[in-house]
Specification:
824 residues; mainly beta; Maltoporin, Chain A; 2 domains; five-stranded mixed β-sheet
Length: 824
């Protein structure tokens, strides 16, 4: 989907994305020759960013930043996270569909399973001044009427704290403007190759309220068409011989399941709005309250089963999610003497209700291990052992920040502040089997054989500052420091009912009758605390007004936490150390920019989430890793009408120590080779120690070694209209879905079972015309209809489920759209 508006005859936006260096050179040489023949030449305008919590020119900020402005967001059809993620080469992610995204930057990724009881995110996502990263991942905010998206690569531990260990993504909204009335709307229709049709309506209005006040209101409704088919299939459980089918028509001898086969299974409706009021109190103070909310109602599943074929699967129970959230925020800005003061506070509430098919787990554990023999009804008859999951995740997040900054023209200047945050996650997951015997249920929870009913709370406090001394107009040094305290607690119930014969957790281990959100009792109540500091040192050299170089050492951190299995130790904090040299250059003509950075990052005792025994998520510190890489970004205004841009990131991310999957007596990772016998005791005579689960030198998962993109846009008159044509290409190299190369017995591990995810190239094309206030645009996304892999996984341990049922989450198929827009 895209939004158009009349363009100026020169380059104005921040948003040129990154490109492989070789391509940049090859493109720039003929482009420069062609430009000499033109009567007009383009000029790049100054780009302002707020990455260091003050407004500055992008070319003056000694941080590797990708900034995508309003105009570029519209030109490149950006409406959601995945749209802008492909424009940020240092960013990678895992996803299960809308609203379920784990974000990584610069290769700092372990391939964890994203469970609700996992580690805190390593990349912070901010909406204006407020963090919106919840414990299980970031909000998938609909992108419309957005001033800018900023991606800050590398540790941002000084100014942004715990959830910005590897980087920060900031979504900056357009603010109310008292200077005049503005409004606009966009209407878009789309069709997906092999799928359904979609539509989008978006609009905004900015209304001045006197000379010092304005209100800005924004709304959207986005229907995304489905393209995954749930095809007819049957399954027969080997232990009981019970057959199930998802066929809409009866199949002799088979039980019809609630979810039936359907084409274009995975559609969604996303709608929401935003309202902000800005009150200017004189020349130096302003107050901006803002409320924003969104609801995403999603059907089906966004991955296909390789056993069924491309964009096909066979599931038997309801799959859906209802993700609704709202945030109230307040920003106060002003001056106290010579100092700028900013207060930013917010309250975020998010509720996610989800239904999941879990039949793969049931079938493959029955096939391997006779799982179906455990499940009876009240008449002691074997029943259909198919599982499904009903989940509720309820988040609340309070954040407050108060900071002061001195005038930038002082030789010694600084920014310093205080931060406090509390986020709570109420977790409910019911693993259910229909017609389950009363004796097999968790007490008070019908048909529920496993229940998680817990409350997790993460508390963060910090004092931070960055202090800069200008040795001259050309040379400056900055020291940053953040003292932090973190507190993680997890309490409630997890496990089986009282009468489960194989129960190792649950009601048999309860130590308190206290009920958490209706759980039968408590079998978990733990807390862990962290404190410490992170540092940053930077030297900046400005050769002249167009050439700046910098050296940076910075640190990021992520607090430890509690495992939901009470007999497992807490996991410790992990730290990231970054060594970086960067440059920002602009040609004398002002027509081209070339920015980049070289970096080495050491990730110590990194946290690793994985499915352990009985497919329960465990988190443990896994060892050490190193990431080495380069990031490059360039923009070139060849003429007033022809512009190019792009960038790339190349990264080598590897383990620097063996990963054995074991901890020593002090809960530190074991890194020997060979690894000890899994119990940690001397092995029996006939069992030798095993190989590392991931040996030193293993490439970290999720992140490709290379990612880049290229965009070209040409604007020209056409029959009384202003017309434009645009092409955009994004390339992602191959990568691995999991860290573990071997199992404990030396057989192939999850990494080898799931296999390498292939690289892909996506191409998007746009053609549009505009006159006065209205515009039409035709666009084609994924023009060559590539079935590219974003992620791959199995529903349970890959050694059990992955050999036969591997899931692949693809990019959406070719999408053709037509849009009408109007601005007032």
């Amino acid at each position: 989907m895209t939004r158009s508006r009349k363009r100026k005859l020169h380059r104005t936006e921040a948003g040129w994305t990154r490109l492989p260096l070789a391509t940049a050179i090859l493109s720039a040489v003929p482009a420069a020759a062609f430009a000499q023949q033109q009567a007009d030449t383009g000029v790049l305008e100054e780009v302002l960013v707020t990455a260091q919590k003050r407004s500055e020119s992008l070319q003056d900020v000694p941080i590797s930043i990708t900034a995508i402005g309003t105009e570029k967001l519209e030109e490149l059809h950006v409406t959601n996270f995945e749209d802008y993620a492909k424009l940020i080469p240092s960013l990678s992610f895992q996803t299960l569909g809308p609203g379920f995204v784990q974000v990584y930057m610069r290769g700092v990724a372990n391939g964890g399973d994203g469970n609700h009881s996992g580690s805190l995110p390593s990349v912070g996502v901010y909406l204006d001044e407020q963090p919106v990263t919840t414990i299980q991942g970031s909000l998938d905010i609909h992108v419309y009427d957005i001033e800018r998206v900023e991606a800050l690569a590398g540790p941002q531990g000084t100014l942004y704290g715990a959830s910005s260990q590897a980087g920060t993504v900031r979504i900056i909204t357009n603010k109310p403007d008292p200077s005049g009335f503005k409004a606009g709307y966009d209407l878009t229709g789309t069709t997906v190759s092999g799928g359904d049709q979609g539509y989008t309506g978006e609009g905004f209005v900015n209304i001045p309220l006197g000379g010092n006040m304005a209100v800005r209101m924004v709304g959207w409704y986005d229907h995304n068409p489905g393209y995954i088919d749930n095809v007819v299939n049957t399954r027969t459980f080997p232990t009981s011989g019970i057959c199930i089918t998802n066929s809409p028509s009866p199949v002799p001898g088979c039980e019809q399941t609630p979810a039936q086969a359907k084409s274009n299974y995975n559609d969604s409706d996303i709608y929401g709005g935003r309202a902000a009021l800005r009150i200017n109190l004189g020349d130096t103070w302003s107050i901006t309250p803002q409320v924003m909310g969104q609801r995403a109602k999603v059907n089906g599943f966004f991955a296909y089963d390789t056993a069924q074929g491309n964009e096909k699967l066979s599931h038997y129970y309801k799959e859906s999610s209802d993700d609704k959230w709202g945030q109230a925020a307040l920003t106060v800005e002003g001056k106290l003497g010579n100092f700028d003061m900013v207060y930013a506070g917010a309250f975020l509430k998010r509720d996610v209700f989800a239904n999941s098919d879990y039949t793969d787990y049931s079938f493959f554990y029955d096939t391997c291990c006779g799982y179906g023999s455990y499940w009876y009804d009240n008449s002691d008859e074997l029943i259909n052992p198919s599982q499904f999951i009903v989940g509720k995740d309820r988040y609340q997040k309070w954040s407050n920040e108060l900071r002061f900054s001195s005038p930038q023209d002082w030789r010694f200047h600084f920014i310093a502040g205080l931060f406090i945050q509390r986020q709570q996650h109420a977790i409910e997951q019911r693993y259910m089997i229909n017609d389950l015997a009363d004796l097999s249920e968790v007490t008070g929870w019908p048909d529920t054989w496993w229940l998680t009913e817990q409350v997790r709370v993460d508390r963060d406090k910090a004092a931070f500052g960055e202090f800069t001394f200008d040795f001259s107009d050309r040379v400056s040094a900055t020291y940053g420091l953040r003292y932090f305290k973190a507190d993680n607690s997890l309490e409630g119930f997890y496990g089986f009912g009282l009468n489960q014969q194989f129960a190792s957790t649950g009601e048999k281990r309860c130590f308190s009758a206290t009920q958490i959100n209706g759980g039968p009792c408590m079998d978990l109540d733990k807390e862990t605390k962290d404190s410490g500091h992170t540092d940053k040192v930077n030297l900046t050299f400005k050769v002249d007004d167009r050439h700046m170089y910098y050296l940076t050492y910075s640190e990021g951190f992520r607090p430890g936490g509690i495992n939901r299995q009470g007999d497992l130790p807490p996991y410790k904090a992990d730290f990231l150390k970054n060594y970086e040299v960067g440059w920002k250059t602009t040609t004398e003509s002002g027509r081209a920019r070339f920015n980049g950075a070289l970096f080495i990052e050491d990730w110590d005792n990194f946290q690793f989430s994985f499915l352990g025994a009985n497919s329960l998520t465990q988190i443990a510190n896994a060892g050490n890793a190193r990431v080495q890489g380069v990031e490059v970004e360039w923009q070139f205004a060849q003429t007033n009408h022809l512009t190019w841009g792009g960038g790339f990131a190349f990264m080598q991310a590897e383990l620097t120590a063996n990963y054995c999957g074991l901890l020593d007596a002090n809960a530190n990772p074991v890194t020997t080779d060979p690894c000890p016998y899994p119990t940690g005791d001397p092995p029996p005579d006939d069992i030798a120690p095993g190989p590392p689960l991931a040996p030193r030198g293993t490439q970290l998962p999720v992140t490709p070694k290379f990612k880049g993109n290229l965009t070209g846009r040409y604007e020209f008159p056409l029959g009384g209209f202003d017309a434009h044509a645009q092409a955009s290409f994004a390339y992602v190299a191959s990568r691995w879905p999991d860290l573990r190369v071997n199992l404990e017995d030396g057989s192939p591990g999850q990494r080898e079972i799931l296999g390498k995810e292939g690289g892909y190239l996506l191409a998007d094309f746009t053609f549009g015309i505009q006159r006065d206030s209205y515009a039409f645009e035709l666009f084609v996304n994924n023009a060559f209809d590539k079935n590219a892999t974003l992620d791959s996984f199995a529903q349970c341990d890959a050694a059990i489920c992955g050999l036969a049922n591997k899931y692949v989450l693809p990019t959406p198929p070719r999408t053709i759209g037509l849009q009408f827009s109007q601005k007032f």
